[in-house]
Amino acid sequence: MLIKIKNNVDEIARLCDEVKKFCDDNGVSEQKYHDIVLILDELATNVINYAYPDGGTHTFTLDLHKDGDDHIVMKLSDDGIPFDPLARDNPDTESSLEEREIGGLGIFIVKQLSEVVEYSRVDDKNHLSVTVSVMNKNNNSSKE
Between vectors from CA 80 to CA 78 and to CA 82, what angle results, nearest 5°? Predict the structure, then answer.
């Protein structure tokens, strides 16, 4: 499924609706749907807020597909300014809130909810691929 998204925060609700239909059609659990929407909300919001400092209307894309029976792959592509979210160090989650630097938690959460996150810059476009397992962790654990 290919979804075109304008760089407008109002598009997030439409994106979530499209992803819900995709997840329903592909038997993705409600919990995994929420994980996927959290990831996409974070990533799309970052593109909308930061990729186009010139303003104006731009469009970026989400290619969403199922890979086998147990993974969903999300590929976001935008022609905004170069930005590799994986180049940043993980935020300090050990210090108190007052001592922590602001920012970086969204990408950290994306990494925590994902199996694989990859970035590339090709043909003046940012490409971020995120793979999420749709298997429940309880289904993969051995019985004691």
Answer: 105
Domain-located, residue 133:
yes
Burial class (CB in 10 A: 0-12, 13-18, 19+), 31: exposed
Mean pLDDT for 30-44 is 95
pTM: 0.83
Q: For residue 52, what is the domain's CATH number?
A: 3.30.565.10
- Which residues sit opposite 125 in a β-bridge? 122
The β-bridge partners of 83 are: none
Give the domain range for residue 19. 2-138
Rounded-to-integer distance, Cα 78 and Cα 59, Å: 7
